[in-house]
Amino acid sequence: MKPVVDRLADYLKRSSKLFMDETTAPVLDPGRGVTKTGYLWALARDDRPWGGEDPPGVVYFYAPGRAGENAETFLTGFDGILQIDGYTGYNRLTKPSRKGGAPIRVAHCWAHARHKLKEVFDRDGSEIAAEGLRRIAEFYAVETDIRGVSPGQRLSARQSRTAPLVAAFGDWLQAQRRKISSKSRLGEKLTYIHNHWDGLQTFLTDGRVEIDSNRVENLIRPIALNRKNALFAGHDEGGVAWGRIASLIETCKINGIEPFAYLKAALTALANGHPQSRLDDLLPWNFTPSR
Q: Which of 89, 283, 113 minimizes the C-alpha distance to 198?
């Protein structure tokens, strides 16, 4: 299935906006009898919240580590907006020295920012953290109102309704940072938000961008579930195969395609000499079940 997954990846990387996230993938370390920690990196497209015409899809790339150069390699040829969490390994993608394309514009995740404050509130009952959570909830209230409308309508609503709220949050954030030690638990969380401030505002300037990266977070969960059931891959090549089959199964699922029927048909077609020039026919969203 490698040719089909490679074609799926190429198709996704032609998009103007993608999500990316990574999760652990335990792999047996041959000769040592123990497992090492590999990673599956999910590269996903889901334009349904703003009525995009391209079908959703995801590709999982395997790498033996979490270093940022892995993301750089996987994203070769992609020059759009990347929605990510706050992992510093992605920083190299925004620099002029980026390999594989022009510097990428990133959109950081307000759900992660919210989670940082929620951790402090749940542990300490901090009134400052509670105020931050209340302010972020106002952003999400606007998102609820504009879900499913066009990018232009989303952008207009965000500029008129959300941008003033975000600006006020920024002023509030800096005021709190002046009063609170950066070494305290709350201070560390506020510094995290400050350090990602530019990326946290990207959604205000493009109606196609989401307020958070929850879409790809949801696509990481099946990998975590399989990790519990299968325990580990046998070797690095097994990790690569794990990523490929997961790419096709999860892309089927988010397109409403029955995975087993699709895989059976696609494997049969490839075994029967399906031409490489027509690989698009074998992408999950082009699958038509036989009756």
A: 113
